[in-house]
Specification:
By secondary structure, the protein is of the alpha/beta class. 46% of the residues lie in helices and 16% in strands. The structure holds glycine (GLY).
């Protein structure tokens, strides 16, 4: 691709005819309008964002698109996980129909993980599927949810229970948007970055260990580096296993227990924080099974603490409840739980050879 500013990074997700690029760097959003005209022509563009993002970033992007002569619209919905449901999808779809969206229209998902999931889900079913571009503005969305094509909404019975696999045409990770992200949200996303280090990149883990203060201070070169490294790992995994038949399961490191912690806390504990605790618990589990070293377990805990992430199972979440919730996870197959364990930092494997007693012991010893 021509005309990419030298500080921007580019990561390719290889999926045959569905392959796409992730552009990463400060200011990549300024390139979107030109790219839409040159590479992604559409009859109209629908920027979808939540009420927090639409007023500033949404309006700005809308104005740029319009001044470039594009037929653009901005649709927004109330911010928060509570909006991640079919009602929001139907309401957005009806708005699109009223504004003339057709099969050649395109969805631009501008925002965090909730926005990306809803907007891409809508794009995947609107008139049987229209094109979508992801414009993630939170760290969590940039390093995880905007890449890989998982879309979905929640129903009262569980999170993400309705969804599709639907790859975007491109992802623009503008790290400049992270400067206005609440610090809590940034730290939330860092749990996923640590995850990539644990499952696949000792180098990334070392960078985080050595530079956590600069990272928390949003030092642009480092942020660009860790977002690029995270996206590269995710791209590599998704390219080999788009539909989570095998390898993609490693991206669930810390998530199996993390989901139970989130649910048991009634979602008072954020995803990233729950994953942080989940990574500690499964690493303890691997330690109990003699598969992971005490030294590396301590390194993981220290890094998470340094990043402001929790490493203990809260005392008000009892072990029995967490174990019961584990069996309700949609990834539990025929009562067997697949755990992603690390044998060392940067190396992981999937196993269902885990005794419930070992899980209980791991949870109890992470109090
Ligand atoms: N967030 C895990 C995945 O995309 O597979």
């Amino acid at each position: 691709m021509e005309d990419i500013n030298f500080v921007w990074k580019q990561v390719r997700v290889e999926l045959d005819k569905d392959s796409y690029d992730i552009l990463i760097g400060p200011g990549v959003l300024t390139h979107v309008s030109t790219d839409l005209k040159d590479i992604f022509p559409a009859s109209s563009y629908f920027i979808i964002s939540d009420s927090n993002v639409s007023d500033i970033l949404g309006e700005d992007l809308l104005n740029i698109l319009k001044s470039d002569g594009l037929n653009a619209h901005l649709l927004s919905f109330p911010a928060g996980e509570a909006s991640k449901n079919m009602d929001t999808v139907v309401s957005l779809a009806r708005n699109m129909v009223r504004k003339g969206a057709d099969r050649k229209s395109m969805v631009l998902a501008l925002g965090g993980g909730v926005t990306g999931d809803i907007a891409a889900f809508l794009a995947s079913i609107y008139m049987r599927g229209i094109k979508c571009i992801q414009l993630p503005t939170s760290l969590l969305a940039q390093v995880d949810s905007s890449v890989g094509g998982k879309t979905g909404v929640d129903i009262p019975e569980g999170k993400n229970l309705l969804g599709t696999f639907f790859q975007p045409k491109r992802v623009y990770c503008d790290i400049g948007t992270l400067t206005s992200l609440p610090r809590d949200e940034f730290i939330n996303g860092m749990a996923e970055v640590v995850k990539y280090g644990m499952i696949m990149s000792k180098e990334l883990f070392n960078i985080l260990e050595k530079n956590y203060l600069e990272i928390l201070n949003l030092e642009p070169d480092l942020i660009c580096k860790i977002v690029t490294e995270s996206c590269s790992i995710k791209a590599k995994v998704v390219s080999q296993d788009e539909r989570e038949g095998g390898l993609r399961r490693i991206l669930n490191f810390g998530h199996t227990i993390g989901h139970s912690i989130e649910a048991a806390s009634d979602y008072a504990i954020s995803h990233g924080r729950a994953v942080s605790i989940g990574m500690v618990v499964v690493s303890k589990l691997a330690l109990i099974k003699g598969m992971f070293s005490e030294r590396e377990f301590k390194r993981l805990k220290t890094l998470l603490n340094n990043l402001g992430l929790p490493t203990c199972v809260p005392s008000d979440l009892d072990t029995r409840t967490l174990i019961e919730l584990l069996y309700h996870d949609k990834k539990t197959i025929a009562g067997r739980i697949n755990f992603v364990l690390c044998s060392e930092i940067g190396r992981c494997f999937v196993t269902d050879e885990v005794d419930v007693k070992e899980v209980e012991e791991a949870i109890d010893s992470c109090r």
